[in-house]
Amino acid sequence: MVSENQKLHVMFLPYIAPGHMVPMVDMARLFAANGIQVTIILTTMNARRFQNAIDRDSRLGREISLRILRFPSQEAGLPEGCENLMSTSTPETTKKLFPALELLRPEIEKLFREQNPNCIVSDNLFPWTVSIAEELGIPRLAFTGSGFFNNCVSHSLEHHQPFKNIVSETQKFTVPGLPDQVKLSRSQLPDIVKCKSTGFSAMFDELNNAERRSFGVLMNSFYELEPAYADHFRRVTGKKAWHLGPVSLYNRDVDDKAERGDKSCVSKHSCLSWLNSRKPNSVLYICFGSLTRFSKEQTLEIAAALKESGHSFIWVVGKILKTDDDQEEESWLPDGFEDEVRRNDRGFIIKGWAPQVLILEHQAIGGFLTHCGWNSILEGVSAGVPMVTWPVFAEQFNNEKLVTQVLKFGLPVGNEIWKIWATQDSPVINRGNIKNAICAVMDNDDQEAVKMRKKANHLKELAKKAVEEGGSSCNDLKALIEDIRLYKHK
Ligand code: UDP
To answer: Known CDD domains for this protein (predicted)?
Structure first.
């Protein structure tokens, strides 16, 4: 138990992927804004992405700092500067990141022992932090990176294994025991879910056990978005959970929005002035998160669909999947595409880190073509934009179902196949399907599109209320801080 007048110290350990670091740093900053001393552990290149934001907080008098560790790139045979999942270009390089993280573990454990904080907020991908928390007699909070809905779907799939008796990969089955009818196919599930015997399944059991031994789970979500699932999760897992999101909404300063997660590769002025020249709800924003890579063939289909749709767009063109021939190419667009877009003033192309939150919030944005990463879903919800869903891997297919089958403010582009980071053999979604989904969401005269837009706008209002004083997330944060203070080691 920590007395009222003693300041709490909470240490955050984010995983090395932008989709985990970005919301965890937001959460850490939220804690600091609420009078808690905060330390965030990051390695050199990852820390650089957040330094400006942390400096801004420090200037406001908040007790927040980065504890920067050297990433053992050399020892792990990685190129210098390759410190997170976004910076790797091949599956082989990615695999080397995991042993490198193991090399860092003793140093992080030592740091926890030296600092002796009142609480550890750990990414759930670091299950070993639960032992350290137990040793120090302090609570460990696990950050899962996704929401209640996905956790409920995953729990049901693990316990009921409904995919086992399904003959065809594409046949739809209902996920058992959920508050709504949710349909998935085997082809949309990760291999680790389908084949429990893989090496990965032992790893997932370890993560689950660590979560069970933890004080509870922190969700970047808000109650009103998925109330039935927030209740269902607590009931079926027996875990304590606090919802603190959408955490992106705590970025109120324009620089915080523009630099969230990294320095943007375009100036906020150029981006905003282009958006200011557009009519409300007329621009489609396209971004597939920080990790997805498409083939040239797929990129070509997207470009053609955009052209044929006739809608204006901002397209964050990700890195392409490399073949042996294009060693040097990072992002790729069909010949003449950029010139044509510029000539017709049809779009704004971003090759690199985009100021996503700043863009989504602009009134000109009328739709979001998204890969359904959980952060992107929440950011789209917070901005009130209907979605065109294109899940690729991780838990993105589950998130898609929340949007298209439960909340119904988006339409699928029709990807049916789960593939890690979209490998070369991923089936290509053709321009016709992409264009149809875009037009169905962006058409401001269509009844169904209007309905989806209304729904999205309603969710935006609920999201805003949740983080305001007296809102559900704000109340949960206060309850959590009190729970940390009152924590007694068993
Ligand atoms: N993001 C961004 N600019 C980019 C790409 C991504 O700001 O150019 C942010 C995005 O706003 C989100 C996070 O990075 O907060 C990506 O997380 P998400 O869960 O959406 O997808 P992931 O990258 O984990 O697949």
So the answer is: GT1_Gtf-like
> Could you count the other beta carbons within 10 Å of the beta carbon of residue 160?
12
Cα separation, 169 vs 189, in Å, equals 10
Is 264's C-beta closer than 6 angstroms to any atom of ligand 1?
Answer: no
Q: Give the global pTM.
A: 0.97
What are the distances in angstroms from CA 392 to CA 183, 294, 489? 17, 10, 42
Cβ of 375 closer than 6 Å to ligand 1, yes or no, is yes
Q: What is the pLDDT of residues 241-261, one digit of tens each?
A: 999 999 999 999 999 999 999
- The predicted pLDDT at position 236 comes to 96
Q: What is the model's pLDDT at position 422? A: 57
Q: Is the CB of 374 under 6 A from ligand 1?
A: yes
- 430/428 Cα distance (integer angstroms): 6
Cα of 177 to ligand 1 centre, how many Å?
A: 31
Q: Which atom of ligand 1 is nearest to the CA of 350?
A: 8
Domains of the chain: 9-249+466-486 (3.40.50.2000), 261-464 (3.40.50.2000)
pLDDT digit string, tens, across residues 140-150: 999 999 999 99
Contact assessment for residue 172 and residue 183, using Cβ atoms and an 8 Å cutoff: yes
Could you tell me the pLDDT band of residue 320, with boundaries at 50, 70 and 90?
Answer: confident
Residue positions annotated with a catalytic role:
20, 123
pLDDT on residue 445: 87
What the block records as the tokens of 169 is: 């990969």
Ligand 1 pocket mutation pick from 247, 356, 360, 400 by most atoms within 8 angstroms of CB: 356
Compute the distance from residue 49 Cα to the ligand 1 centre, in Å: 13
Q: Indicate if ligand 1 lies below 6 Å from the C-beta of 245.
A: no
At 448-466, the pLDDT tens digits run 999 999 999 999 999 999 9
Phi, psi of 161 (to 5 degrees): 45, 55
* Ligand 1 in reach of 291 Cβ (< 6 A): yes
Residue 37 has pLDDT above 80, yes or no: yes
Residue 187 half-sphere exposure toward CB, CA atoms < 13 A: 13
How many Å lie between the centroid of ligand 1 and the Cα of residue 376? 6
Give the Cβ contact number of residue 485 at 10 Å: 15
127 lines ligand 1 (CB under 6 A): no
- The pair of structure tokens assigned to 428 is 């290509």
Question: How far apart are the CA of 21 and the centre of ligand 1, in A?
Answer: 10
Question: Which of ligand 1's atoms lies nearest the C-alpha of 20?
Answer: 24
**Measured in angstroms, how far is the CA atom of residue 285 from the centroid of ligand 1?**
13
Q: Where residue 403 falls among pLDDT bands split at 50, 70, 90?
A: very high
Q: Where are the beta strands (DSSP E) in 27-98?
A: 37-43, 64-69
Mean pLDDT of 378-395: 97
Q: Say yes or no to pLDDT of 131 above 80.
A: yes
Ligand 1 site, residue 87, Cβ cutoff 6 A = no
